[in-house]
């Protein structure tokens, strides 16, 4: 009986690993990998934008201002930067990293352990600001 259960579990894991869209549990964090361009790992939601670092930085600053962020602390370097703020009583950290001429990665963490839905709202607003530009 135990061997049948073990075989079933092994087959189930094998099928999940072969699936095109799935989830991987790694160290207590769920990493989603699917048809979308977002990656949620360790409480941070990341995506790439087809825009320059300057454009994305500006869009992130305007998003924080539109959401009435307080205690805003931007730190910018040549190829990366972070914007820390408090938005709606939650700590928000936005990390912006240069990848290529028109490719910039943005990671958003809301709260201490992360909030995927709130991070997605911020990403949607950033994308909207990039479309306006």
Level-2 CATH architecture of the largest domain: 2-Layer Sandwich
Average predicted local confidence, pLDDT: 82
Q: What Rg, in angstroms, do the CA atoms define?
A: 18 Å
Q: What fold name goes in the CATH topology slot of the largest domain?
A: TATA-Binding Protein
Helix content: 25-40%
Strand % is 35-45%
Largest sheet features:
6 strands, antiparallel
- For this structure, the quaternary state is single chain
Taking pLDDT < 50 over at least 5 consecutive residues as the criterion, the unreliable ranges are 17-36
Provide the CATH top-level class of the largest domain. Alpha Beta
List keywords for this structure.
133 residues; alpha+beta; globular; 8 strands; two-stranded antiparallel ribbon; 3 helices; TATA-Binding Protein; single chain
Q: Can you characterise this structure?
A:
With 133 residues, the chain is an alpha+beta fold. The chain has two domains: 1-35; 38-132, TATA-Binding Protein (2-Layer Sandwich). 36% of the residues lie in helices and 40% in strands. The protein has three helices and eight strands. It has helices at residues 2-18, 53-66, 116-132; strands spanning 22-26, 29-33, 39-41, 44-49, 70-76, 80-87, 90-100, 103-110. The strands form two sheets. A six-stranded antiparallel β-sheet has the order 3-4-8-7-6-5, with helices on one face. A two-stranded antiparallel sheet has the order 1-2. A hairpin with a 2-residue loop joins β7 and β8 (103-110). α2 (53-66) crosses α3. The chain is globular and about 60 Å long. The termini are far apart.
